[in-house]
Inverse folding.
């Protein structure tokens, strides 16, 4: 995935709408252009994190819980638990060659490391990272299944971490540790360029998520929410008599 927040560059309907309200906010604000850019870019980055999986416009806590439920659902579809001792006894007792081959295959899979089982799941899951209902199964012990869950749980927040660099640059608070812990691995970029009367802020999330189109749609919603926030402030200024509609909207 290569998602970028470009505050002064039009990209899509909602980003254009965001920029339109940003320009009007700058025109009526008593703050400097740079201060307004910092403030509104910070709010935009906060919404970008809020819409990036696993949040999808949920709270951090709900996003984290939803991810854990999704992992459990995938493991239920991808893994079948078997007792290693029971399989060994079955192999020892049976004389049917087909059954013996089945037991050996199960034994081989039960000996797989948690890391290899994680690779098996990732190779067979959909771009949305959901495991298909009719996808292939892997036999594991109960202990291995627990360790696979623990490994997958540690990856929660990796995609959203691509916005942490921008969040820190703009003093966005409240990003939880399970996201920030990945910032060194998914190291996004943040840049503010001041050139004459132009102030440009750019943030980029470099994470290569397998379902980047869906995430791009979520990012468009971040622009929508951030634009709505500015529009509400502008209409409040009109309602309170601070500015007229003509001054803000030109009509």
């Amino acid at each position: 995935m290569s998602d970028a927040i470009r505050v002064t560059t039009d990209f899509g309907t909602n980003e254009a709408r965001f920029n339109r309200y940003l320009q009007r906010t700058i025109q009526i604000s008593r703050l400097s252009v740079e201060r307004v850019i910092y403030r509104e870019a910070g709010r935009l980055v906060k919404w970008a994190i809020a819409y990036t999986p696993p949040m999808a416009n949920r709270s951090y806590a709900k996003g984290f819980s939803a991810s854990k439920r999704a992992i459990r659902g995938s493991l239920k579809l991808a893994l079948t638990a078997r007792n290693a001792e029971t399989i060994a006894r079955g192999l020892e007792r049976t004389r049917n060659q087909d059954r013996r081959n089945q037991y050996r295959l199960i034994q081989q899979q039960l000996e797989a490391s948690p890391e290899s089982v994680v690779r098996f799941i990732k190779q067979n899951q959909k771009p949305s990272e959901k495991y298909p209902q009719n996808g292939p199964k892997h036999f594991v012990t109960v202990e291995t299944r627990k360790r696979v869950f623990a490994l997958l749980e540690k990856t929660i927040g990796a995609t959203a971490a691509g916005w942490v660099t921008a969040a820190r640059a703009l003093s966005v608070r409240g990003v939880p540790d399970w996201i920030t812990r990945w910032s060194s691995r998914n190291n996004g970029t943040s840049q503010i360029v001041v050139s004459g009367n132009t102030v440009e802020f750019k943030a980029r999330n470099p994470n290569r998520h397998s379902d980047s189109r869906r995430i791009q749609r979520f990012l468009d919603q971040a622009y929508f929410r951030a634009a709505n926030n500015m529009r509400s402030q502008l209409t409040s200024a009109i309602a309170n008599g601070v500015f007229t509609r003509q001054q803000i909207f030109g009509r």
Summary: Residues 212-239 form the longest helix (28 residues). The chain has two domains: 3-54+157-249, 62-153. Residues 8 and 19 are 6 Å apart (CA to CA). DSSP finds eleven helices and five strands in the chain.
